[in-house]
Task: structure prediction
Amino acid sequence: MTPTWIKQTPTGIVLSIYCQPGAKLTKVVGLFDDSLKISLQAPAVENQANELLLAWLSKQLKIPQKQIQFISGQNSRKKRLEIWGSISPDQIIQALMPK
Result:
């Protein structure tokens, strides 16, 4: 079954993410309100947390950062991002599921 935080759309794959800035490590923490909860090492100041989130997702998913964009939530802990390119929802789930 597909988790509630990931949805396939005609244009790509949408992720619902809940961010916790200012953490000790950047990592997936678990689930929170139908979103994937990710702690971010960067503070929520001057877009640092958003930039770290994009860079971290790019690295985890092994895709270029330009294939990830915000749909909503740049100024909120709840974010929606769209990913496109040659990656499947299953590959994303595999790369991001809490271990």
About this structure: The CA atoms of residues 26 and 40 lie 4 Å apart. The chain has two helices and six strands. The first helix runs from residue 48 to 61. The two ends are 18 Å apart (CA to CA).
